[in-house]
TrEMBL record, chain A:
Residues covered by the Rab-GAP TBC domain: 281-469
Compositionally biased region (Gly residues): 1084-1093
Compositional bias segments (type: Acidic residues): 861-872
InterPro entries: EF-hand-dom_pair (IPR011992), Rab-GAP-TBC_dom (IPR000195), Rab-GAP_TBC_sf (IPR035969), Rab_GAP_TBC_domain (IPR050302)
Name assigned to this protein: GTPase-activating protein GYP2
UniProt region (Disordered), positions on chain: 776-804, 826-913, 1046-1119
Domain of life assignment: Eukaryota
Biased composition (Basic and acidic residues): 1060-1073
Organism field: Sodiomyces alkalinus (strain CBS 110278 / VKM F-3762 / F11) (Alkaliphilic filamentous fungus)
UniProtKB/TrEMBL annotation, chain B:
UniProt xrefs under Gene3D superfamilies: P-loop containing nucleotide triphosphate hydrolases
NCBIfam families noted in UniProt: small_GTP
Keyword list, A-Z: Nucleotide-binding
Database matches in SMART domains: RAB, RAN, RAS, RHO
Keyword Nucleotide-binding assigned: yes
Example GO molecular function: GTPase activity
Protein's recorded name: Ras family protein
Positions of region (Disordered): 140-161
Top-level taxon of the source organism: Eukaryota
PANTHER family per the UniProt record, alphabetical: PTHR47978
Length: 1119, 244
């Protein structure tokens, strides 16, 4: 993504440099904490707090209780680590303290040769430690004897451990700490603290352990429960394979012995035998439990033993896409296994997959998970499988099942690299024959070989995989290639290639050397051979080999996915996207996802920073071994190719999105805000808007959001954003733009916008223009004097200054004119006469009432005789031939009332503020709105050009924020950014909103003058139309305008009550215009071409109505 | 692999065919029916892709189909380019009883038209005809029955058809696709689809069977770069320094 690296860099600089948080390369240079977590398979809640060199002594198996001879038993030198809730010991000489170099902390990734990544040792939850005694020792300063809860936990309350001692096997190990006295004491202090905190968790431990089959296994015969812990569907439907051939009994015996001597489940101690026993294959009933231990998922279960059940309960009955997909596959998961031909197995599978899809919606459900989970369920309980699935998706094979499957694709690339490196001849052959290796190998990895090999063998691979990690998948894959190398070299196409391997997998149980003289050699199966080749010949393939190659290929793979995803997403956007150019859609896509990604990164950084500060202030001095940057591994989240962890834009993101493209969407407060908080670099880090400008929060933006949010989800998809913008920018058609704006304010989509809406529209117009208008603005209309030759002048920009009056200032005038005209031509609300018979037919009484109600609003500035005139001409009972019969109910009342309203008495009309009086509901219709807009050239240009142009999809606003309000001094005191969220459709705001609203209120309040002026302009327009611009006319106009300019400041002045007889004709002309607009509205979408004649006419009126006056007026209000 | 150069009594050539379509529409089942004349009620979902071959005898020549059956789930879509690379034919399958599956099918058609080898022969296939009243007895004869499918919904005996023949047919014509309604379960129309495709493959593209450096491989090369192309390494490895 575009700005990722710069963002990360910035973050790195800003974060306390000594902290060394390496955000960009969390894999290359993983934090000590995450290495520690991998080493001991612990969750990300655990940090390496203390570590110390130590020697572990395990009593010999036949030691009697209380035998404390430290010279007997097994001794291991290694390191003891303490985290928040775990005490871990490992013989691998790794270190996770801050001073440790990367090599020593990642050493566990080296060759394991059966030792497994966690080496020999143990991983005890502190709550599993029952007792710690300090021993006296000659050779060591500190010797600790640790007694665990091993074997005591499954004992029910009645049985008192001491009385039952012969059945219990106390696990007691000795640890000699080998370090300075000070270090030992520090460690012991930490341990004490941890133990105290862990006491409360014994209950959880008991619960977790109760699900482990080993507890049952090690119980003496007479104490065994009738119902042993669930060891998977295999207990009911048999385990795959012939137990005799698998030598299951013998294995079970060996394991029972091992567990007796070395502790079971959570308290197990890993000795070399442990790893050997795993290599020969696990016994059926213990398999699940040992997978759980080696993968570390048991620690997840211990952390939250009820998560599985809770999740199911919490989401019971809920539906999701993932669930639909799961349902499709339930009958298609290991269908050959009897357990999955049965409701029992299907039900378990359904529940585990569903529960996981809820806790990890980023992954949801991916085909192949059904097969993997089905396999797990043969050997373990539902909740065990649930946590093991988490371990898989989050640690063992991250990204395999994500929505983009980037992990799968990446590992395929890694696998190809490894084949090339280890089998160059074969690789060359593949390239030459144009065979795509991943076509074959991808299913191996994705289904962890479960789908490729006979189940019994796949489980053997899994046994090793869980203890040694993902490198096993590669080792096995390479071994398959090596063993079949000869045959593969003969294969020249995908088909042959695949069939060679298919037949190999089907013969895994056959002898690897059938013709050998040596019976021992003959007894070796192909599978055994595979294991030997995998782990001996490819022992050089280590975890760090894989990590290295993953890192090296990661970017290329992600880029590929991103371009693919982008292409697909854009293609599937739907018809609206066609209105925008391909480049624009592409740019929108980038803008959309970059923004979501950056926001997510920012959130993480902020969280990290906040946490760091909290931590620092808490424990600066004492905690030298503090883990660094836990959670680094999630820092990449949000990048598209990693799976769209967010593809939804909420309102705040939307604001930021707009602010990246449109200057009006940048808050005015931005500069001040920065001045206040920008002193400290690190504070900028906590800025929720990152380096970008703070976006404004205006009601218009909220409306825009709501209108784009077609589904009403409160979040926008890319498709929403594209169609939203397509409607504004796509058609480049002024009618569309006006309709769009109108609809934005027509809350109930009844084709009407009420008084409140009119004011809000005006407010929005001012909001949108406050940093200047963009697009093509004709300077011709600005002042009367510029009328002549200049009138066809070049389009100006926002900065164009014409005779001291910029387009922006003129726009203020246009907006105030807009309000005036809206109220002038608004219709009173008459809800009951809306339907059916229309106003004309609906009882005289009712109409009278409605007229009375609305009277003030329309009586503004009218005098008596004028009222009479109006009545004659425009009375409700329209003259015959008037083109608006009841067939157009929505607009007809508009006209009739327009006239009839003028019938009201003067007394009422002098309630001048009435235009704002909520007791007099009124509204404008779309045709009225359009007429009013088209009556002003600047407004027209706004809708035609400025507004669509103000969205800079392609180029954006650049990194530097536009100067706050500098271009519009007149409005500098009006604070858009600061305004508190205003209820979207409040009744006429009762002075709740000052600032701009106050200005508007004033404009409207100045009703009489406003109405008069509009009317006068109409007169002028009419004159112009009829007399075709007499030379003298111009002068008059100028004078009029000048007058208005003077009068504007005079509140309530009865100006403009000219009794020009021509006005009547204007009125009727008006009406024709309106009805013309109606006709157009009626024929929605009939093409703007047909209406252009009329539009032209309306536009012609414009020039006569100079805006110089009103704009001055606004300026005066300011002062 | 038999090349065109082998002098055989009847010219034989292989055609790479890819199956695309939403999950569980019956892609694998169609292939299984075509290749083994078999049907399995619970077919495992395809992971990644499956590969099968089957010969198709035409009067004048033999076509050996190399069939790539892909996984249907949305997230596997990014793997698809790997499989339709160099394909000469594609079967885009939808489920007659699932409207969303036709939408997905249209996406695939669009993708193929833009990204696959030019001149790829695409067949649109509506599967599970056995679940409709037409029952596969005489396809398309009684598409009017689709009118009352709402009422019959949920009942086993009713017509589960959700996509009228005409609708899909019209779309197929518009896009220049072959069109069939099939049932992998009964076998209805299945062979016909493959035969029709075999017949529709232009002779010219058969001359150069795909193979090492074959012409077909070259055909798709132009579009290759933009795809999620795991083999892209071959081109990039040197530059990217995949020090293998
Ligand atoms: N009634 C009926 N069921 C079918 C037909 N074809 C397939 N099915 C069933 O539909 C389900 C899915 O079939 P598959 O062939 O696995 O579908 P797919 O398209 O390969 O699915 P993915 O591999 O997940 O993309 C199986 O349960 C089939 O039995 C058919 O023609 N009629
Ligand atoms: Mg399939």
């Amino acid at each position: 993504m575009l700005n990722l690296s710069s963002l990360v860099q910035k973050a790195q600089q800003l974060i306390d440099p000594t902290q060394g948080l390496n955000l960009s390369n969390s894999d290359k240079n993983p934090s000590k904490a995450s290495l520690f977590q991998s080493q001991f398979r612990l969750s990300s809640s655990q940090n390496p707090l203390y570590e110390i060199n130590a020697e572990l002594t395990i009593p010999p198996p036949n030691a009697t209780q209380g035998d404390r001879d430290s010279d007997r038993g097994y001794h291991y030198a290694g390191k003891l680590h303490l985290s928040e809730a775990y005490l871990c010991f490992s013989t691998t000489p790794s270190s996770f303290v801050r001073s440790a170099n990367t090599a020593t902390s990642s050493v566990f990734t080296g060759q394991t040769h059966g030792a497994g990544p966690s080496g020999n040792g143990f991983t005890f939850p502190l709550c599993a430690i029952r007792k710690v005694e300090r021993l006296n020792s000659q050779s060591f300063q500190f010797a600790l004897a640790i007694t665990t809860w091993n074997s005591f936990l499954s004992v029910t309350g009645k049985e008192n451990p001491p009385t039952d001692k012969k059945n219990l096997r106390e696990q007691r190990i000795t640890l000699h700490l080998a370090d300075t006295r000070h270090a030992c004491e520090r460690f012991c202090d930490g341990l004490k603290k941890g133990l105290r905190a862990a006491v409360g968790n014994v209950g959880r431990l008991r619960k977790v352990v109760a699900e482990c089959y080993s507890e049952h296994l090690l119980r003496p015969e007479e104490k065994k429960d009738a119902s042993p812990p669930d060891a998977g569907l295999g207990m009911m439907f048999r385990y795959p394979g012939d137990p005799k051939k698998l030598r299951d009994r013998a294995k079970m015996r060996l394991w029972a012995e091992y567990l007796r001597d070395n502790g079971r489940n959570i308290t197990i101690i890993r000795q070399p035998t442990f790893h050997k026993l795993i290599r020969v294959g696990l016994p059926n009933r213990l398999r699940g439990e040992i997978w759980e231990m080696t993968s570390g998922s048991i620690h997840l279960r211990l952390e939250n033993p009820t998560l599985y059940a809770d999740t199911l309960a919490k989401f019971a009955g809920k539906e999701s896409l993932a669930i639909d997909e799961i349902e499709k596959d339930l009958n298609r998961s290991l269908p050959e296994y009897p357990g999955f031909q049965d409701e029992e197995g299907i039900g378990r599978l359904r529940r585990v997959l569903t529960a996981y899809s809820w806790i990890n919606p980023d992954v949801g459900y991916c085909q192949a998970m059904n097969i993997v989970v089905a396999a797990l369920l043969i050997y373990m309980s539902e909740s065990q499988a649930f946590f093991l699935l988490s371990s898989l998706c989050e640690r063992l094979v991250p990204g395999y099942y994500s929505t983009t499957m980037y992990g799968t694709l990446l590992d395929q690339k890694v696998f190809e690299c490894l084949v090339e490196r280890t089998m160059p001849i074969l690789w060359e052959h593949l390239v030459k024959s144009d065979v795509q290796l991943s076509v074959v190998s991808l299913p191996w990895f994705l289904s962890l070989y479960i789908n490729s090999m006979p189940l019994v063998f796949a489980f053997r691979v899994l046994d090793v995989f869980f203890v040694e990690g993902p490198k096993v998948l590669f080792q096995v894959g390479l071994a398959i290639m090596r063993i079949n190398g000869e045959e593969l070299l003969d294969a020249a196409d995908d088909g042959t290639f695949i069939s060679v391997l298919k037949s190999y997998f089907s013969r895994l149980d056959e002898s690897a050397h059938p013709k050998s003289e040596n019976p021992k050699l003959r007894a070796v199966t192909k599978f055994q051979e595979l294991m030997v080749v995998a782990f001996k010949e490819f022992s050089q393939i280590t975890h760090s080999t894989i990590t290295d190659l993953r890192l090296r290929n990661k970017d290329a793979v992600l880029r590929n996915i991103e371009s693919f995803t982008k292409r697909t997403a854009i293609r599937n956007l739907g018809p609206d996207s066609k209105l925008l150019s391909a480049d624009e859609v592409g740019a929108l896509y980038d803008r959309f996802y970059t923004l979501l990604y950056e926001r997510q990164q920012r959130d993480l950084i902020i969280q990290e920073e906040t946490r760091r500060r909290a931590r620092d202030s808490r424990a600066r001095a004492q905690d030298l071994f503090r883990g660094e940057g836990e959670g680094d591994h999630i820092v990449d989240k949000g990048r598209i190719a990693l799976g769209p962890s967010t593809s939804m834009m909420d309102y705040n993101a939307f604001r930021e999105f707009l602010a990246s493209m449109s200057k009006w969407a940048v808050a005015d407060t931005q500069l001040q805000a920065q001045a206040h908080t920008g002193n400290r670099k690190s504070d900028a880090l906590l800025n929720p808007w990152g380096s970008g400008p703070e976006p404004a929060d205006h009601e218009f933006m909220r409306r825009l959001f709501k209108s784009w949010d077609v589904g009403g989800t409160g979040e926008l998809t890319l498709a929403n954003v594209v169609s939203g913008l397509a409607r504004i920018k796509g058609r480049r058609d002024i009618m569309g733009a006006m309709n769009y704006f109108f609809e934005l304010y027509d809350d109930d989509s009844d084709g009407k916008v009420d008084r409140e809406g009119i004011l809000r529209i005006s407010e929005a117009l001012l909001f949108l223009s406050r940093r200047g208008l963009e697009g093509a603005l004709s300077p011709s209309t600005s002042t009367p004097t510029s009328n002549g030759a200049n009138s066809q002048g070049q389009p100006g920009t926002s900065e164009t200054d014409l005779g001291g009056v910029s387009a922006n200032e003129r726009f203020l005038g246009s907006v105030s004119a807009f309000i005036r005209r809206c109220f002038e031509y608004a219709d009173p609300d008459r809800p009951r006469t809306q339907d059916g018979q229309a106003g004309e037919e609906g009882g005289e009484e009712e109409r009278e009432k409605a007229q009375a109600d609305n009277s003030e609003a329309f009586a503004i500035g009218d005098d008596d005789d004028e009222d009479e005139d109006e009545l004659d001409l425009l009375g409700p009972d329209s003259p015959p031939g008037s083109p608006k019969p009841a067939a157009k109910p929505s607009t007809t009342p508009a006209l009739s009332t327009d006239g009839s309203a003028r019938r009201v008495s003067r007394a009422q009309s002098e309630a001048a503020n009435a235009a704002l009086d909520p007791a007099n509901p009124l509204h404008i219709t779309l045709p009225t709105f359009r007429m009013v807009v088209l009556a002003d050239e600047l407004l027209e240009q706004f809708f035609e050009s400025s507004f669509p142009t103000s969205f800079h999809i392609m180029e954006g606003l650049g990194s530097s924020a536009p100067p706050a309000s500098s271009s519009l001094t007149t409005f500098s005191s009006i604070n858009f950014g600061h305004r508190a969220a205003m209820p979207a459709i409040a009744p006429a705001a009762q002075g709740a909103t000052r600032g701009l609203r106050g200005v508007l209120d004033n404009i409207v309040t100045d009703g009489m003058r406003v109405a008069a002026e509009v009317r006068k302009r109409m007169d002028e327009a009419q004159k112009e139309l009829e007399k075709t611009a007499l030379p003298g006319q111009k002068d008059e106009d100028d004078e009029d305008d000048a007058d208005i300019g003077v009068e504007i400041g005079v509140r309530g002045g009865g100006a403009g009550s000219s009794t020009d007889p021509e006005r009547r004709r204007v009125r009727s002309e008006d009406r024709d215009l309106l009805s013309g607009a109606d006709a157009e509205a009626g024929a929605t979408g009939s093409g703007s071409g047909s209406g252009s004649g009329r539009e032209g006419k309306l536009v012609d009126i414009g020039p006569g109505m100079s805006d110089a006056g009103p704009s001055k007026g606004v300026v005066e209000f300011e002062g | 692999m038999e090349g065109p150069g082998n002098a055989a009594p009847k010219p034989s050539s292989s055609v790479k065919l890819v199956l695309l379509g939403e999950a569980a529409v019956g892609k694998s089942s169609l292939v299984l029916r075509f290749v083994n004349n078999d049907f399995q009620e619970n077919k495992e979902p395809t992971i990644g892709a499956a590969f099968l071959t089957q010969k198709c005898n035409l009067p004048t020549r033999t076509i050996k189909f190399e069939i790539w059956d892909t996984a249907g789930q949305e997230r596997f879509a990014s793997l698809a380019p790997m499989y339709y690379r160099n394909a000469q034919a594609a079967l885009v399958v939808y489920d007659l009883t699932k409207p969303t599956s036709l939408v997905k099918a249209k996406h695939w058609v669009a993708e193929l038209q833009r990204q696959a080898s030019p001149g790829i022969v695409i067949a649109l296939v509506g599967n599970k005809l056995d679940l409709t009243n037409d029952g596969g007895a005489d396809a398309g004869a009684d598409a009017g029955a689709a009118g009352d499918d709402e009422g019959a919904e949920g009942e086993g005996s009713g017509d589960a058809r959700k996509i009228p023949t005409e609708e899909a047919q019209a779309y197929a014509e518009e896009e220049g696709l072959l069109f069939f309604e099939t049932s992998a379960k009964t076998g209805h129309n299945v062979t016909d689809v493959f035969t029709a495709i075999a017949n529709a493959i232009p002779e010219t593209s058969l001359k150069s069977t795909r193979g090492p450096g074959g012409a077909a491989a070259a055909v798709g090369r132009g579009a290759d770069e933009q795809r999620v192309n795991l083999s892209g390494q071959r081109d990039n490895a040197a530059k990217e320094g995949c020090a293998c």
